[in-house]
Amino acid sequence: MIRQLEALKKIMDRLIQGVNSKSEKLEIEQRKLERGTDMQIIVSPVPLWDPVLQLNTSPGKHWEEKVTASLMLHELTHIYGTEDNDSKGELLNAHTIEIYPPVEGTPAFRGLILKCQKQRHK
Ligand SMILES: [Zn+2]
């Protein structure tokens, strides 16, 4: 458990660093995704390409700020090594980490969410 907590801390530290970074890039694009998938992230195994956050273009999606923030937090943690299952441990499962982040307290993260919402409403 301690090892998982340490790994989780490293992931969250890197995520904060990434969100605040002026050099690390995140592409945001609209795509027709599978039904039931609101958002997904494509992370290249080689660090040549920037991660791409894809938003589903299907109608009927609600991009309320808190939900968007929660989904985005889930997806962004994948860049730094979380999984969608317990294969690396429960704490490194993105679904476990998927909480409502305090968007008011993190201007860079909030900026990302707004960019995402703007993109979605185009
Ligand atoms: Zn996931």
CATH class: Alpha Beta
Number of domains: 1
What small molecules does the structure contain?
zinc ion
- Per the CATH scheme, the topology name is Zincin-like
Task: Name the helix and strand elements from N-terminus to C-terminus, one letter apiece.
Answer: HEEEHHH
How would a crystallographer describe the biggest sheet? 3 strands, mixed
CATH second-level architecture: 2-Layer Sandwich
Could you explain how this protein is built, in words?
By secondary structure, this protein is an alpha+beta fold. It has a single domain (2-121), classed as 2-Layer Sandwich (Zincin-like). Helix content is 43%, strand content 11%. The chain has helices at 2-20, 65-79, 94-97, 107-121, and strands at residues 27-31, 39-42, 52-56. Strands 1-3-2 form a 3-stranded mixed beta sheet, with helices on one face. The chain is globular and about 40 Å long. Bound molecules: zinc ion. Zinc ion (ZN) is lined by residues 74, 78, 84, 94. Zinc ion binds at residues 74, 78, 84, 94.
Give the arrangement of secondary structure elements:
Elements: H1 2-20, E1 27-31, E2 39-42, E3 52-56, H2 65-79, H3 94-97, H4 107-121
Helix pairs in contact: 2-4
Bound molecules: zinc ion.
Looking at this protein, list some descriptive labels.
122 residues; 43% helix; Zincin-like; globular
Brief sketch in words of this structure:
The protein has one domain (2-121): Zincin-like (2-Layer Sandwich).
